Model the fold of this input.
Amino acid sequence: MNFPILSFLTFFPLVGVIFILLRRGSDEVVERSSKNISILVSIINFIVSLFLWSKFDPAIAGFQFVEETQWIKNFVSYKMGVDGISIFLVLLTTFISPLCIFASINSLKKRIKEFLIAILIMQTFMIGVFCALDLFLFFLFFEGGLIPMFLIIGIWGGERRVYSALKFFLYTFLGSIFMLIAIIAIYWNMNTLDLVKLMESKIPENLQYWMWLGFFISLAVKLPMWPFHTWLPDAHVEAPTPGSVILAAILLKISGYGFIRFSLGLFPIASHYFANFVFVLSVIAIIYASFVALMQTDMKKLIAYSSVAHMGYVTIGIFSFTKQGLDGAIFQMISHGLISSSLFLCVGVLYDRVHSRLIQDYSGVVNIMPKFALVFIFSSLANVGLPGTSGFVGEFLTLIGAFKVNYIVSILAATGIILSAAYSLWLCKRVVFGEFKVNNHGEKLLDLDATEIVVLFMLMILTILFGVYPNLILEPISSSVDLVVKNMGAIK
Amino acid sequence: LLKALRSIGTFLWQRGDVKTIDAYGPDGVAKVVKNLSDRASSVQSGYLYHYATVILIGVILIISFLIII
Done:
């Protein structure tokens, strides 16, 4: 029997949780061993995911490393597997998790043990969501992730943490109800929730439209798409830095993945039918969120709105049904995961020292923190989509894909790049350059420490690496994307 | 031009997000639910004769329904 590597990746973080819970002793001892255990577990998980990548065969379009066993008799099977589309999202999760743990060790002061437990449980749900090949199992991981995130915002958040945590939870939970109803309807009509079987057997056309809408509401809230986006800026502002990183880097990507896997995979006719509707919402999201980002006074809120705009490119790419568009959407998800993590960590660095996220409280930071300034400017430029960074490749490919099907969408979406340059560079100008001035606790402004340098430079290196050599991602995803494009083309 | 761009940004943020999407969306729904719950909870007066009246009305309605059907 083959080693169940996907189950290992998914549930190994829970082993870490058990070890943390079993630790006894003084608070200091428990806290120290909690840190050590969570770092060890997350690094082992990352190494195992690299092993998974090394064994992954890019020539195969279908699912690999498939594990299947019956769970609830005749109803739910425990079925896991990855293809080119999901493997990089698994890798992104296992890569970002240890960085979050390092960041939380640096910045959090209270209930560290409980926080690390929440992060590890979150990791289990996030890896599970990308590997699940049964709709019920997917929904379980999809919803389960809400709980640790709700706790992370609600317990370790800022002043308005309760409002933000409830808004996040209720908003996304309400959206998910529609997906649950759609899943139940699929079961009663198709007699299975197995994703592979559902992809092979065509879902009736009249059913597809309703099911598509059910999934769409849930995924659109979680992405988030305009006008379901207002929970995200609140959640980001109140979440602690590692929480924001997980939210931006991993949680938002579930929806992009969901659109490719379910909307395109299970409801191709409905996807064609609703494509223009998605284009309109995406273009509005890009332009609207970019304008709103321009006027933000809180750095985290600015990055949150920028995320809404950037996820607009992802949906445009996906619903272009072209190879370039889908390649670009998947690339953009990975790229945004790295760049937004870097930006949120940068804001976290400033917040840890000065306890303010307001742009007006900073000026001329480069004079005191040159290393920080380098990373911050680099990440901002990558966020704009500077050639040579991964941000460029993702946006460029999605726009090429969109141009092929609707050049007006492509042109309108391209204006978002100009706006993103405006808000990102203006942010840099105000915070990094000019005469040095920091309101309150300015004397505490020290440059990056060793841990921060390692974490931020790792993100920077990957952003450049994928920007210069995008085939590292594009080649392994090629076969799976070709299959999706072929299936969508067959419907046309 | 910059002034115009900033005005658009402020308008979309304050009028769009805060006063429209949030006000009629999550915050609005939360307010409506709270209002309805407040009203519903005021029915629980604690007076036995209030409850007895409601039970009586209920019984009359059920019997009328059964007779008509």
About this structure: Chain B touches chain A at residues 5-6, 8-10, 12-13, 16-17, 21-22, 25-26 (CB under 8 Å). The CA atoms of residues 50 and 56 of chain B lie 10 Å apart. Chain B has three helices and no strands. The helical segments of chain B are 2-24, 26-42, 48-68.
